[in-house]
Write a structure and sequence with these properties.
- The chain is mainly alpha-helical and 87 residues long.
- Helices cover 70% and strands 0% of the residues.
- The chain has 4 helices and no strands.
Length: 87
C-alpha cells in the first residue's frame, strides 16, 4: 500500500529541497569580508552589557508582576469571604 503511494507521487515530492533550488553563487563584485582574527572589544562589551541589562530588567519586571498578582488575588479572596459571611 505504501509502495503504491510512492509510485504515484510527483517527482518533485521525492527530491530533496536542495536539488530543487538553483545553485547559489555570490557575484564577483562583492567586497571580501573583514578578517575575524581581531574582535571589536567595544562592540562585544556593548552587546553583552545590553543583553545583561535587558535580562535583569525583565526578571525585575516579572517579580513585580508576580507580587502584584498575589496582592490582587489576596484582596479578591478576602472580599469573597466577607461577602459570603454577610450574605
Amino acid at each position: 500500500m505504501i509502495s503504491g503511494l510512492w509510485d504515484r507521487a510527483p517527482h518533485g515530492a521525492l527530491c530533496s529541497a536542495g536539488s530543487l533550488l538553483p545553485p547559489l553563487s555570490l557575484p564577483a563584485s562583492l567586497p571580501a569580508c573583514e578578517p575575524h582574527d581581531k574582535c571589536d572589544r567595544l562592540e562585544v562589551k556593548l552587546t553583552l552589557g545590553t543583553s545583561v541589562f535587558l535580562w535583569l530588567h525583565r526578571i525585575k519586571q516579572h517579580n513585580e508582576n508576580v507580587l502584584e498578582h498575589k496582592r490582587r488575588n489576596g484582596v479578591e479572596q478576602i472580599l469573597e469571604i466577607l461577602i459570603q459571611h454577610v450574605a
